[in-house]
Each structure stands twice: as C-alpha cells, then as structure tokens.
C-alpha cells in the first residue's frame, strides 16, 4: 500500500478536477484523470476506445494508464493526488465489460486507506465534448464506486459541497 497515493473519486462532474488543480496550486503532486486523457487521445487519433463507443476497451486502457501513473509516481517523495485511478477503471470494466478484475487489481495496488468521494452535485454538473454521458449515468457510476471502495477495505470520505479552497482544506485536514 502507498499511504502517499490519495484518490479523489466519486460522481462525474462533482468537482474532482477543480480540487486537483487547487491541490497542485498548493504544491502537491497530482495525476490527471486517465479517462480524460484517453478520450483526448482517441478523439485526436480517430480511435474507438471511447466510453460512448466501446466502454470495455476504454476501461481496459484506463486500467493500463492508471498502472503506468502509479509506476511513474512511485519514487515521488510526497503526497500524490490522483483524479480517479485504478479502482475506478476496474469498476467500469466490471460494470460494462463483465471482466472480474477489481478484487485482484485492488489487492495488488493499494492507495491510501481514505478515499475522497465527490458527491452528486447537479448545480455544477456539465457535459462537454469529453463527458458526453448524462447526470443519470454519473449517479449510477457514483453508486458503484460508493459501494466498491468500502468493500475493498477503504474508508470513504464524502467531500462537502463547498468552495474548492475549503474542499482542499477538508482533504488535507483529514490526512
């Protein structure tokens, strides 16, 4: 387990990336969401490993990228904040591809015992060219993650719906 690797997970469109930016601004190492990076690369290349075309292929790519992110940050001496990561990707693969990978990957590649979840926040949710699913799909994903993390031995900490500076303070105080 790496107590230095902190996961920000939860509802899509709940403010994870904004919180990651604030933590980066405060001098912490951060890793951007694998899914966003994959979507950008696939759109640029005309690929099909996109969540709205082939969710299983997308999730497999996200698992590979999350493993590479962990390896890349292994020697970083301080806290590293991940916008989603391996467990989120494995959850998506199980839900949409039927492959049972979550338990094995989660056991082999642990994060800090506390995982911070952004709750559904419809007032700030917005779709875009890279987030084409609706709020209902975001809620389904949140419910899967909310159940998966505790089942894997993580303590879930639901983030308050407050300005980003206060959210960052909340996360850092709980670590």
From TrEMBL:
Residue ranges annotated for the NadR/Ttd14 AAA domain, each copy included: 6-167
Q: Please give the organism.
A: Shinella sumterensis
> Which InterPro entries does this chain map to?
NadR/Ttd14_AAA_dom (IPR038727), P-loop_NTPase (IPR027417)
Q: What name does this protein carry?
A: AAA family ATPase
SUPFAM superfamilies the record matches = P-loop containing nucleoside triphosphate hydrolases
